[in-house]
Design goal:
184 residues; single chain; alpha+beta; Beta-Lactamase; 26% helix; 4 helices
Length: 184
């Protein structure tokens, strides 16, 4: 992570999740990340609607040049990388795995702006909508409204496995029933 907002929000999210794969949405206190709120957003995990914004910080809205509430996150991106972005967001939600991406966008004068995108999952709970949170932050503070967002690079943030003694790992594997789907 290169951007200070991404690093700070990830550190906060990481402490809130503790030993879990992700924190509950209720565990995130906006007052604790007050200085980052302009760069933070929450997306509803509805791929057929393009992952609409539930909440978008003021700076994220300023980057798009409009209020983003209920607008499609994927629609900000070019057609060429939209499906890739939707796949990344789906994996973040389904696999409870964070992702970091480099993004470029076009300024009004035609030059490129460079941004960093961080996507982090929330713990899925029964009977609650699935959502992800994240940061979209430009490296240049004076970039104005942007368009044609494009993914330039991305990677998943693998969470370290807890190291257990071999005897305990063998017992965990031996217990329970594992069903493998196969071909007929």
């Amino acid at each position: 992570m290169k951007h200070s907002s991404s690093r700070a929000f990830f550190a906060y999210w990481d402490t809130k999740r503790g030993a879990a794969r992700a924190p509950d949405r209720a565990d995130i206190d906006p007052a604790a990340v007050r200085g980052l709120l302009g760069d933070i957003f929450v997306l509803s995990c509805e791929p057929n609607l393009g992952f609409p914004f539930r909440v978008a910080g003021t700076r994220v809205c300023a980057l798009a040049g409009r209020d983003l509430k209920d607008q499609s996150f994927a629609a900000l991106f070019t057609d060429a990388c939209r499906s890739e972005l939707e796949e990344i967001a789906t994996i973040v939600a389904d696999e409870t795995l964070g992702a970091i991406a480099g993004v470029t966008a076009a300024r009004e004068d035609g030059s490129k702006a460079h941004l960093e995108l961080l996507l982090l999952p929330f713990n899925a709970r029964p009977h609650t909508p699935v959502s992800v949170t994240g940061v979209l932050a430009p490296f240049d503070d004076e970039c104005g409204a942007l368009s044609a967002f494009t993914l330039t690079s991305w990677r998943y943030l693998h969470q370290p496995e807890k190291l257990l003694p071999r005897a305990i790992r063998k017992l965990q594997i031996a217990r329970g029933l594992m069903v493998y789907e196969g071909l007929r």
